[in-house]
What we know:
Shape: globular
Number of strands: 0
Structural class: mainly alpha
Low-confidence stretches: none
Oligomer: single chain
Distance between the termini: 34 Å
Radius of gyration: 19 Å
Strand content: under 5%
Amino acid sequence: MIGYVANAIIGVLKFFSVEEDIRAYVIWGLGSFARVSGNQVTLFVTVMAVLLPLSMLLVKTLNLLLLGDRYARNLGLDIRRARLWTIGSAGILVAIVTAYCGPIMFLGLAVPHLCRGIFGTSDHRILMPASLLMGAALALFCNVIARMPGFEGVLPINSVTALIGAPVVMWVLLRKRKNDLNE
């Protein structure tokens, strides 16, 4: 329902917008690293240098949440506050990246599952730094592919990330379904 309300608001804003602004919005929605200037990169790196280490403080909380609500609560974790901090910090980090580069799809969904499969663990002490590094490497790889010679201009990065991320997400869903059927 939140998505419908947001789409309605966006639709009204598009209706009253200038054609150039609508074009800029559509291009931003395709995702790109190319439109970020040097000054913006400096601010982005500064903000991330503060927020990423703070988000790493949630590693213990996330590992406790893996144990289940009852067990985590018995170990002294305030479940409601832990979820609020986790969702809030993830939301802020995603919002900052989206503001600069547009919505880059599938990286945040596919990369943690790839890391979990590669490292064979659910320990967030390993998964969070691994997801950070693998996500950056995969974003760079997709950006290089989007800029390959032979293409007229630059492909939208979402086209490339979807080609990589969608199969990973389908693999995770099919594997989960297979595991559920076997149990």
